[in-house]
Structure formats: C-alpha cells, structure tokens
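Researcher: Re-running this chain for the archive, since the previous output was lost when a drive failed. Same request as before.
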Amino acid sequence: MSQISAVIITYNEELNIARCIESLQGIADEILVIDSFSTDTTEEICRKYGVRFLQRKWDNYSAQKNYGNEQATYDYILSMDADEALSGELRNSLIAAKSNLDSAAFSMNRLTFYCGRPIRHCGWYPDRKVRLWNRNVARWEGDVHERLIYLSPVPRQHLRGDILHYSFRSYFQHVEKINKYSEIAANIAFQKNKSSNIFKLVLKPAFKFWHVYLLKGGFLDGYAGYLISKMYAYDAFLRISKLRLMKSGYNRE
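Model: Regenerated structure tokens:
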C-alpha cells in the first residue's frame, strides 16, 4: 500500500485545525502542519494530536505549501486547508486509492458551507480540485489563488466524495475575508499596472451579482445564495476601489 503525507498550512486556526486533523487520521501516514507563527492555541492543538509541526515565516500561499511538500516524508501529497475536512465517502475513496496509486494526480469535489449551510450553486459546487498528487510532477504557483502547475502532462483520476469546506462561519467573517483578499488582489493589480476606471467601478459589481445569482443559480440557495451574490459584487467593488486609490496615490490609512 502506498503512503501519503498530508500537508496543512496554518495561521491562527484554533477553531478549525482539530476537525481537519481528525478527518485525516487513518488516511494520511504523516500529517505535516506548516504554521506561520500562530498567536492562538493552534500549535498546542496540533502537538496534542502528535502531528509534525513546523513554523515558517509567511511569504505567500504557494511558498508555504511548496515548503511543506519539500519537507514531507512521502512523495504523494494530500493538500488540505485548515478549514477543510474529508467526508466519509471521500475517506473511503482515498483508502481504496492508496492500495494502488496508479495515477499521478487525483481530483475531488469540494463542498463549501456558508454560515452552516452547504452551498450547491453560486458556482461553488462541485468545485473540483486536484489535492492528491505525486510531488515530483507538479508544484504550487500564484500568490493569492494558488494553483498546481504540472511539469508535464499527467494521468488523473477523480475520487468520489467531498472535501468539506467550512470557510464562512458568519456573514461578518465573510466581510473580513473579502477585505483581506481584495487588498492583496489590488496590490497585485497595481504592481502589474492594471487599469481602473469609473465604468469598471459601476458595471463590474452589478455584473458579478447577476452572474452569480442568475447564471450560477444562486437563487436556488435561498437567502444564503442572495448574500453570496451580493458579496461577490462587494468584492469586485473593493478591488477596483482600492486599485484606484493606489493609482491616485491616496493614503488610505
């Protein structure tokens, strides 16, 4: 049977990390946590579960994950975020796959929960991700929305079951995340000298809302779908607004 290293990156994940680690027990032959010097009880929780716990100064998502992959004991990497967990069906699929890892990469669906409710529309599901692969065939690239880049074409296999993504505990947490990631995105756009104008500021948020709410079926998720659609519009508004402020030299502090 092949062996797997699960790699998780963390920063102040005391509310999530135990659930993630517990879902990996019996699946991963090694659980490796790469922490960015958390100030909460993340380290204490991880050490209670006996995982390998390493700390590294934060660069970006890809750098943290690639570092973890390099430190892993085994070639097959199962990449997880701290706010994720394996469903029972996916655990069974992984157990079966471990008996014969004949593909270089394995994809799986991700089901995101919003304020406790699973979201199956809004473009959020099935959200297929490659999360199990041989580290010799791919590495992470990208600062914000990191993605796997393959060194050459590789065979892939899709596994049944879901990664359960507990991304948004509350509406207010969603607002905080959007503010954080819009700042990162605006800085990247500024460095690339991307354009920003009043037409984008007015039209793009409206387009984002209707795209998610109507075309992506957000209305089928009820009030949660409406909120998510509005938040997509808010995210677009913040990204463009912050970029315009940066280009104008306005000090936002």
